[in-house]
Amino acid sequence: MNSRPRLVLASGSPRRLALLAQAGIEPEALLPADIDETPERGELPRRLAQRLAQQKLLAADARRKLTSEYDGAYLLAADTVVAVGRRILPKPEIAEEAADCLRLLSGRAHRVYTGIALMTPKGAIRTRLVETRVRFKRLSREEMDAYLASREWQGKAGGYAIQGLAGTFVIKLVGSYSNVVGLPLAETVALLAGERFPVLQRWGHPA
Ligand SMILES: Cc1cn([C@H]2C[C@H](O)[C@@H](COP(=O)(O)OP(=O)(O)OP(=O)(O)O)O2)c(=O)[nH]c1=O
Asked: Active-site positions, per UniProt (predicted)?
């Protein structure tokens, strides 16, 4: 009998997969959603993270409906946004853009928001928004140049990855660390458990 609840991750992010694995959850499938992530005019960072997480969820839901393979599975999506005040930082693809991000983050505090969206097997949608405050030390020219040369910033919200070399820039962090990487673990587990996905029950029975 296979009555184990299944979970599909609406993401192509290897970091989100690794974070779920850390919680003992192995998704049945990955359904990345290709959506337009451009902020709306005047959109606040927390609203953007929430909106994009929901859009990824709905796009993945539409995709899975093309086949009936993942019917009845939980579907989870997330989106991470980095902001200095109301200013939303890009996910840089070129060094110049990444350099702008580093100059903005140097010696200052910023906020990282992750929106998470869950669709239950019955089709109900539940969302959460998690905020972490991060302060970078003041970065020297050498540090910025060395980091730009690493290319670790490419495609990362705010132009850095805390789980890599940029971890050496962090002098203060208030809130969830995993939230900065891309999926807040405590809140995600609470959301799933609250919707009867048996997270803890799996810990004694690794996949
Ligand atoms: C701030 C920060 C961001 N990031 C990354 C995580 C995300 O990949 C990216 C934020 O972009 P997202 O759009 O949230 O995620 P994604 O495009 O990688 O994956 P998908 O949409 O398929 O779920 O920034 C880090 O890896 N470490 C960090 O410290």
From this structure: 79 (proton acceptor)
